[in-house]
Amino acid sequence: MDKPQFAFFEGRIVPIDQAKISIMTHAFNYGTAAFAGVRAYWNADEKQLFIFRPIDHFTRLLQSASLLRMNLPYTPESLTEILGELLRREEYAQDVYVRPLVYKSTLGIGVRLHDLDDDFTMFAQPQGMYLGKAEGVKACVSSWRRVDDNAIPARGKLAGAYVNSALIKTDAQLNGFDEAIVLSQDGHVAEGSAENFFMVRNGVAITPPINANILEGITRRSVITLLTEQLGVTVMERDIDRSELYLADEAFFCGTGVQIAGISEIDHRPIGKQKTGSLTQRLIAMYDDVVRGKVAQYRAWNQPVYVPEPAPGD
Ligand code: PMP
Hints:
With 314 residues, this protein is α+β, with helices and mostly antiparallel strands. The protein has helices spanning 26-30, 54-67, 76-90, 162-174, 218-229, 242-246, 278-291; strands at residues 6-9, 12-15, 33-35, 38-43, 48-52, 96-104, 118-126, 137-145, 179-183, 189-192, 196-201, 204-207, 235-237, 250-255, 259-266, 269-270, 302-304. It starts with 5 loop residues before the first strand and ends in a 10-residue tail after the last strand.
């Protein structure tokens, strides 16, 4: 993985090696940070880098910050501008993954959320696929449960809560699976360790609702739009029982990192034809076009980074 050269840190873009925090930082001691994962996609024909839905990602980041009682002098628009500047400084001409973070920056001990300073930092690194496999991923149902809204809200992308995701992911992988599906305390499906979950049964796409202890995923939202508007598929947001997983015709994870990844097995039971299903394959192809700015109808989701080159004759 190529290392980024720069970071936005303490209010300006600095060389990445200067972007360092103290061991006394509150967020490092108590997990009092929140983050986002944003992708920017290279479009070779247009020689353009498109950030995918940055306003939505930064809106959610600032909502996570507000759950942590943070006050930050940024808006989704100003954060999008900073990201554009950072990507131009890096001169990226390839797919990249962006990691913005907000954090309690006060140096000192004392677990609480109030009367602390807050700050924002961000870096971007080149990155392609990380979970997707053409043959589909092997998933299990985790023995861990998803963090509950009354313990640590899953709708915030809160750093401390990712210990839950790390426990889930590591156990799944050490047990020979690629990824896990996590249940809520009440036994219904929530999501993957760091992705939302969809299944298809009898031609209907089903995904857990936003009050099922899930992160309100932006890919999830995009997928619902594409399934409904482009593929003519009905989407139901409702609770999913564990046993329904085993009877699914197709299933997939979706998120900024994994993008859309078909599931071939759950708990060693084949899903559909034991490979990425046909509707999921169509969705994957459509999603790739959309994120690269190739579908005019969704072009508002693509924020260009570079000033477009004038067309010949302009
Ligand atoms: N759930 C969790 C727990 C995640 O960490 C992520 C990744 N951000 C997602 C779902 C997918 O969210 P998004 O599509 O906004 O990346």
